[in-house]
Amino acid sequence: MSIPEIVVSKNWFGFDLDDTLHEFRRASANASASVFETVHASNSKTSVDILRSTYQDILRNATANAFTDGRTSSEYRRERFGRLLQTHRLIDDSLLDHLLEVYQDSLRKSLTLKAGALHLLQTLRGLGKKVIVITEGPADAQEWTIQELGLRSYVDVLVTTNEVGKSKVDGMFGIVLEKYGIAAEDIVYFGDNRIRDVQAAREEGILAVLYDEKQQSCLHDVSTLRVGSWAVVGKILVHRE
């Protein structure tokens, strides 16, 4: 079979969520900027740029083993924003509570689907395919995101590292296959990260495809499968080419 035929033959279609089905980096950056501006408004001595730099340091130190300990998104954010305020001697519980609201509201307004993502999921639904989202992050946040994006009715299963207790590179894919009774040869998985998505999935025998909008699609070699848009996948499903 050709690669398009192999893809079409799969009963399960798996996807990462952040920066694969929606513009997470952009939405998160906008939400964080709203937080920095709110903090600056409460204390003009601390610039937005300094707050951004401090927060980037906090993220670098906090994300190594994050999202596998069962905590909620609010708990993660409270911890990080709390460290931000503490670093600049701005400890204020009421301000911290407000920052959580500011972040959530801004995130909601900034959520944007990747071009063609909704149409692709609708096509898969019409073809009777099963859709599973395997992603990192707090379970409550990812469930909220799928709901806000209007994707819930097209997703059969949502699994997060927070729920499984393992990251993608530490065996998450194998655990998910076993838990949901999915054979590795019966699923194709799409993600935007070569290591955490593609390589980790392939190590479990899954046909994995890199989603990269900055490069042209490559569909002639299973070891370097890549799509540059969801329209390409839609064309494969409809025309098998």
The gyration radius over C-alpha positions equals 19 Å
Give the strand tally: 6
CATH topology category name of the largest domain: Rossmann fold
Q: Which regions are unreliable across 5 or more consecutive residues at pLDDT < 50?
A: none
CATH superfamily of the largest domain: HAD superfamily/HAD-like
CATH C-level class of the largest domain: Alpha Beta
CA-based shape: elongated
Q: What's the SSE pattern?
A: HEHHHHHEHEHHEHEEH
Straight-line distance between termini: 12 Å
Q: How many domain regions?
A: 2
Describe the biggest sheet?
Answer: 6 strands, parallel
The assigned structural class equals alpha/beta
Secondary structure tally, helices: 11
Characterize the quaternary organization of these chains: single chain
Strand order of the largest sheet: 3-2-1-4-5-6
CATH architecture of the largest domain: 3-Layer(aba) Sandwich
Helicity range of the residues?
A: 40-55%
Q: How much of the residues is beta strand, in percent?
A: 5-15%
What value does the average pLDDT take? 94
Organism: Penicillium chrysogenum
InterPro entries: HAD-like_hydrolase, HAD-like_sf, HAD_2, HAD_sf, PGP-like_dom2
Keywords: Hydrolase, Magnesium, Metal-binding
Protein name: Glyceraldehyde 3-phosphate phosphatase
